[in-house]
Give the backbone structure.
Amino acid sequence: MVIEYSGNVIRSVLTDKREKYYDGKGMGCYMFRIDDYEVVDATVHGNAARFINHSCEPNCYSRVITVDSQKHIVIFASRRIYCGEELTYDYKFPIEDASNKLPCNCSAKKCRKFLN
């Protein structure tokens, strides 16, 4: 285990509204989906996990685990991580059509060229 992705747990239906609010304030938006109903919004009340970048060849992976009937997002190392090495995981965004593709800049040898 490397770190838990923490923040405010909100209902999925609120994510678009919050994202528009943050965009209007010129803020970055840091959200991680737990399941179809809940999302962790780490934008204001999150920890350093929100700054972990995507990679098509990551050194970490994420899992939703349940502890005392509460769901938590935890980032685990998939291999040994060396001092000074950037932490990364695959964001696994849903596949989108060509007009909504987000370019990937991970520079991995096997980069998929898009996050979605």
